[in-house]
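User: Run a structure prediction on this.
Assistant: Running it now.
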Amino acid sequence: MKELKAPAPTDVILQSGRLVANYGRQVIIEDACGVRVPCRLHGRRLSAVCGDQVQWGYAQSGDRTGIVYHLLPRQRVLSRLSGLGTSEAIVANLSQLVVVAAAVPAPDWFVVDRYLAGAEWSGLKAVVVFNKCELGLTPMAETELLSYQAMGYRIARTSTRSEPGHGALSATLADQISVLVGQSGTGKSSLLNALIPEAMAITQEISAATEEGRHTTTHAILHHLKTGGELIDSPGVRDYSPPVPELRHIASGFVDLLAHAAGCKFQDCLHTHEPGCAVRAAVDDGRLRARRYDSFRHLLSLAREMHERFPVRRKGKESSRPRE
């Protein structure tokens, strides 16, 4: 992403900061000393999301509200699929996606697979959390968690009502900038409250600092964790739909599939019907799990559907391609 700038008056002293709360045009910036300052975005074209690095300043001496003039380039972006079929940035400069499933409601493993693929496409680390462990794990859930662990993903088993608690999750969040995502009802809010008991008070304090904060439920806030690391909470992120890239890039979201793709006869193999496909051969002989291959085929179909509904994506105007 290119650096976005709005002209600042020559007498404004610009400071570096990070956007840690977003209420539309009203935002909260954390300065180099950790002080949080209410600000507003300058100009209609300037758009920012939680996690953005910015330059800001006071328009006049004595002002209590600053103005954000410059948005610095983003390193990694978490995007969601908009109603127009394009990518819409929702969080910037994070490092880790925490995918939450639970004993109840019954896990939709395709949803988990899609989130993990979205993390791979965005260049993010990923953690799979299984919450509400006090209700027990089915043999299928145990198999899926062990499968993800074998792929190299970190696994955390949690509960906010009894053992094992949330200690394993805290350990995965240390030194990372993370967001929680997953199906509705998996207990993401309960986990957030357990990790950050003061989260509600912080939200109310920030809401009071911005007029728009009192009238909107769509906001994102970055919290500092006592055990290290940072957690961004955003209702718009918790059950978002990751955008899908071009067909030829879908496989890059499946680390277990990629382990076999190098053996395909054709470099542009989509792993569906092509002759000499090493991926399908791995499914047939059990080296690649059929359920994961079904998830890949499902996402491939979704990508085809999106490209047919929104042909503009094929003209290079879509930004959901994975990082090279």
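The mean pLDDT is 87.
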